[in-house]
Design goal:
This protein has helices at 23-36, 58-64, 83-91, 112-121, 133-136, 140-157, 173-181, 190-200, 225-244, and strands at 10-15, 45-50, 72-75, 98-102, 126-130, 168-172, 205-209. The protein is of the alpha/beta class. The protein has one domain: Spore Coat Polysaccharide Biosynthesis Protein SpsA, Chain A (Alpha-Beta Complex), CATH 3.90.550. The chain has a seven-stranded mixed sheet, sandwiched between helices. Helix 2 (58-64) links the parallel strand 2 (45-50) and strand 3 (72-75). The chain is globular and about 50 Å long.
Length: 250
């Protein structure tokens, strides 16, 4: 009889479209951290890098780093659609009892990984990072858009958090399957929708302020500020409509 492989304790998902400039360094740092952190050392960890059809060397770099991990896989979802699609692609395929996705630029320091995992062990279904947007967006226009967007999300999504967009969120396996199977927004607004889905299903959401979040040059949100903001308004309207129609309720 074939033996069933044990479920990993944790899956780490890194969406990485055209990230050849930083994905190698990110994986190096992640490998060292997983081996040295007291809370995570000894845990079985699956690492999934999700990369749409990149025109650079992202895929080759990821494959070259596999020997540094017990379990590192490169997932290729096909043509580029959006960050939400890539994260969803990884989340529904992840095997870990807990599943976290993080940005390839490591804007949120890795030291928060064990803290988030501990919150999951204590009963949280969803654990999210939040930022002080007044501090981290020195550009007054960007700050106004971010703060205004988060206020609108609290109303449309029904989730009272100060920041819905930080790219560092952990889900229990069951919560990930539930929330990401119902996801309809495949672009930047997916963060807002997945939290609205969690709230609609009465999942326990815990947030942690990340005061040392770093705005990385050429990071994950660097252009199209006004176009993305207008699209976010459309996505908020969709979230509100879905909540009213109880589309998110399992």
């Amino acid at each position: 009889m074939q033996q069933t492989q044990a479920q990993p304790d944790l899956t780490v998902i890194v969406p990485a479209y055209r990230e050849e400039k930083r994905i190698g360094k990110t994986l190096d740092e992640l490998s060292v951290f997983l081996k040295s952190d007291v809370a995570l050392n000894g845990k079985t960890v699956e690492v999934l890098v999700v990369s749409a059809n990149s025109t650079d060397k992202t895929h080759e770099i990821v494959l070259a780093k596999q020997k540094q991990f017990t379990d590192l896989k490169l997932l290729k979802p096909g043509k580029q659609v959006g960050k939400g699609r890539d994260v969803q692609y990884g989340m529904v395929r992840a095997q870990g009892a807990a599943i976290i996705f993080m940005d390839a630029d490591l804007a949120t320091p890795l030291k928060y990984l064990p803290k988030f995992y501990s919150a999951y062990l204590k009963g949280s279904d969803v654990v999210i990072a939040t930022r002080n947007l007044r501090k981290h967006h020195p550009n007054p226009i960007r700050r106004l858009i971010s703060n205004g967007g988060n206020l609108l999300f609290r109303v449309a999504g029904g989730v009272w958090v100060e920041d819905s967009q930080c790219g560092f969120k952990l889900f229990s396996h069951d919560a990930a399957q539930l929330c990401f199977s119902k996801l309809t927004i495949m672009g930047w607004g997916f963060d807002m929708e997945v939290l609205a889905i969690a709230k609609a299903n009465n999942l326990k959401i815990t947030s942690y302020r990340v005061n040392d979040w770093v705005s990385v040059p050429e990071g994950t949100f660097v252009e199209g500020m006004f176009a993305n903001s207008f699209k976010s308004l459309q996505e908020l309207a969709r979230i509100l409509s879905n909540r009213i129609r109880r589309t998110y309720v399992d």
